From TrEMBL:
Protein name, as recorded: Lysophospholipase L1-like esterase
Lineage: Bacteria, Bacillati, Actinomycetota, Actinomycetes, Propionibacteriales
One Pfam family hit: Lipase_GDSL_2
GO molecular function per UniProt: phosphatidylcholine lysophospholipase activity
InterPro entries (UniProt xref): Ester_Hydrolysis_Enzymes, SGNH_hydro, SGNH_hydro_sf
Positions of the SGNH hydrolase-type esterase domain: 45-248
Length: 269
C-alpha cells in the first residue's frame, strides 16, 4: 500500500498538511499547537502516506476519526495530521527528535497519538518480495531496525508528553505493498503470498511494541482482508486506501479508543 520510495532526506521534506473543517468543534490545524483547553481533545497523527491520505482526494482517516470521536463525546476535538508520504520509521524518529519540529510540537500538545509506520522500511525490497525472490530473509536487517525504532518512537512520545495522560493507538497494515486487483495483475502468486507474510510479520512487530509499552495496537488487517471486496477499499493504485478504506480505518480506531478516554498504564510511572 505504500509507495516504494528510497529513504527520504528528512531535512528536505516539506510537510504539506491538508486542513479540513467538518464541524464547528472538529478542526484540522497546521499552526503551532496552543495549550489544551479543559475538555478539549487534541489528536496528532504520525505516519506515512496512509496517514497523509495520499492518492485519495478525500479527508484522510485521522480527520474522519476526529469527527467520530467528537460525535461520540460531544467535546471539542482538534486533529493535526502530520502524515508524510514515503516516511519510514527512521524518518519518523528523526522528526520527533528534531527540536521544535511540527511533529515534536504537535505530539507535546496531543492527548491522543495515532501512529501508522513501518511499511516503507521494506521499500527497497519491494521487487524481491513481490516477485517471490526474497530468499534468505532479505528483509532481516530492516525488520530488526524497525523493531528497535518502534520502541524508540514510543519512548520519545512519552518524553514529549512528560508522562501526561495519553492515548496511543498504533495501527498495523492490510498490506505493506499493493493489494486487490492491482496486486493480482502486477505480482506473481508467490509474490502476493510473500507480501502477505511480510505484512503479518510487520503487524506482529507493531503489536509487540504496543503491548510492551501499554499502548493500543489497532488491527486493520482483519477488517480489510475480511471485506467482501478489498479492491473497493483501495485507491486506483492498489497501494493506498480510498475514501471507503479511510472510513473503515477511522471506525476501527474509534472502536479501539477507550470511552471515556483514559491514560495508558504506562503514563505517570
Amino acid at each position: 500500500m505504500i509507495q516504494t520510495l528510497r529513504r527520504l532526506a528528512i531535512g528536505l521534506v516539506v510537510l504539506t498538511i491538508v486542513t479540513a473543517i467538518s464541524s464547528a468543534d472538529t478542526i484540522s490545524e497546521v499552526l503551532r499547537p496552543q495549550p489544551q483547553a479543559a475538555g478539549q481533545v487534541r489528536i496528532v497523527a504520525l505516519g506515512d502516506s496512509v496517514t497523509s491520505g495520499h492518492n485519495c482526494n478525500c479527508a484522510a482517516f485521522p480527520q474522519m476519526y476526529g469527527d467520530l470521536l467528537h460525535d461520540r463525546s460531544g467535546g471539542s476535538v482538534i486533529v493535526n495530521n502530520l502524515g508524510v508520504a514515503g516516511l519510514d520509521s527512521n524518518g519518523l524518529l528523526q522528526l520527533l527528535d528534531q527540536r521544535n519540529s511540527p511533529a515534536e510540537q504537535a505530539t507535546d500538545a496531543a492527548s491522543v497519538v495515532l501512529i501508522t509506520i513501518g511499511a516503507n522500511d521494506f521499500g527497497d525490497h519491494h521487487d524481491d518480495v513481490t516477485s517471490g525472490q526474497c530468499t534468505g530473509d532479505c528483509v532481516s536487517d530492516e525488520f530488526e531496525q524497525l523493531q528497535v525504532n518502534l520502541g524508540k518512537i514510543l519512548a520519545r512520545i512519552h518524553v514529549l508528553r512528560a508522562d501526561l495522560p495519553t492515548t496511543i493507538l498504533m495501527t498495523g497494515y492490510w498490506n505493506v505493498f499493493k493489494d486487490g486487483d492491482v496486486a493480482k495483475r502486477q505480482y506473481t502468486p508467490s509474490g502476493r503470498i510473500a507480501s502477505d507474510q511480510l505484512t503479518v510479520r510487520t503487524n506482529a512487530a507493531i503489536a509487540a511494541a504496543a503491548h510492551a509499552d501499554d499502548a493500543t495496537y489497532v488491527d486493520i488487517y482483519t477488517p480489510f482482508e475480511d471485506s467482501t471486496d478489498i479492491t473497493g477499499l483501495l485507491a486506483s493504485d492498489g497501494d493506498h486506501p480510498n475514501a471507503a478504506g479511510h472510513a473503515l480505518i477511522a471506525r476501527t480506531l474509534l472502536a479501539a479508543t477507550p470511552n471515556p478516554l483514559t491514560p495508558s498504564p504506562r503514563q505517570g510511572r
